[in-house]
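Please go through the sequence line and token line underneath and see whether the fold suits the sequence. See right below:
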Amino acid sequence: MNWEQMQRRCASTRFVCVASLKDYRFAIARHSRLRSCGTANIFADSGSEVWGIVYDVSEPDLTILDGFEDGYRREKLFVRPVGDSQTSVEVLVYIAEKEDTVPLPNPEYKRLIIDGARHWNIPESYCSMLEQIQAMAD
């Protein structure tokens, strides 16, 4: 969700909208070898909801992004843009296999998630949930 990070990684990145994904849940449920900490993942969970950002990214930049998303695979899912509960938009998301024993995220990773959510005005209840994520000690 972090705008500055997306711009650094993928020069073609363009903001499209804030959106929600029904029947999925956010969790720190992946051990990143690149970051050496726990990282975000989503997985199916009836009645739950994940909030995120839809970006338009060129094919060459998607290939670059794949390198950062080590261990994740691209999947196509349908999200609902904020303010338009009648429209579904097909998007690519990165999902990894859920892992059971995952370390905590580091403080920088947690900050990137929260700053991104705050930047795009994700609903306060969701931001509060993100802020409750435990992180490694500084």
The helical segments are 3-9, 59-68, 107-119, 124-131. The chain has a mean pLDDT of 94. The beta strands are 14-32, 37-56, 73-81, 89-95.
